[in-house]
Amino acid sequence: MSEALDWNTKTITEFRANEGKVGGVFEGAPIVLLHHRGRKSRREYVSPVMYLPHETEPDIIYVFATSGGAPANPDWYYNLAEAGAGSVERGTETYQVTVRDLASDERDRVYAEQARRYPGFAEYARQTAGVRTIPVLELSRA
Questions:
Q1: Which helix (H) or strand (E) holds 77?
Q2: Reported confidence tier of residue 7, pLDDT bands at 50, 70, 90
Q3: What are phi and psi of 35, to 5 degrees?
Q4: Coil, strand, or helix at residue 2?
Q5: Which of the four pLDDT bands, split at 50, 70 and 90, describes residue 71?
Q6: Which of 69, 72, 67, 58 is nearest to 30 (CA)?
Q7: Quick check: 64 and 123 in contact, CB under 8 A?
Q8: Are strands 136-141 and 60-64 parallel, antiparallel or unpaired?
Q9: In the beta sheet, which residues pair with residue 36?
Q10: 52 and 128 in contact (C-beta within 8 Å)?
Q11: Which DSSP category does 100 fall into?
């Protein structure tokens, strides 16, 4: 098992055992488990990611395809964006979501708020500057 898959598996297990809370680098951060289907394999995947809740709508959250500042977007981003739907585990609840890829000013505003709250996101943007713009997806309860 690769180091990344092993880390994901441990994070998913901890999330489910602790009603959506995990320690380590995610200690105290809002985390969801994204359920998405591979575009080619059709296999179901689960990816733990941080999210930003919408300011006023409790059924909307934003997720960020940072890939830890890597030069390429993560597969989960392409899977969700292409499907336009998926599901999330948030706390102890699992529900279906629709997916919208944010653009321009709206994307920039949401990303800036996440970077303000969690400075690591500003670092990811610096690492990818001139290579890619980190996508932001809006996930709305279906």
A1: helix 75-83
A2: confident
A3: -105, 125
A4: coil
A5: very high
A6: 58
A7: no
A8: antiparallel
A9: 45
A10: no
A11: E
Question: Structure tokens of 82?
Answer: 């292409």
- Round to whole Å and give the CA distance between 19 and 138: 23
**Count of CB atoms within 10 A of residue 91's CB?**
12
- Give residue 21's identity as a one-letter amino acid code: K
Cβ distance 12 to 33 under 8 Å? yes
Closest CA to 92 of 26, 10, 27, 18: 18
Number of H helices, E strands in the chain: 4, 6
Per-residue pLDDT tens digits for 88-126 = 999 999 999 999 999 999 999 999 999 999 999 999 999
3-state secondary structure of 9: helix
- For 72-98, the pLDDT digits (tens) are 999 999 999 999 999 999 999 999 999
Predicted confidence at residue 25, as pLDDT, reads: 84
* 80 φ, ψ (degrees, to nearest 5): -70, -45
Question: Measured in whole angstroms, how far is the alpha carbon of residue 38 from the centre of its chain?
Answer: 16
User: Binning pLDDT at 50, 70 and 90, where does residue 1 land?
Assistant: low
Query: Residues 6 or more apart from 21 whose CB is under 8 A from it?
Result: 15, 31
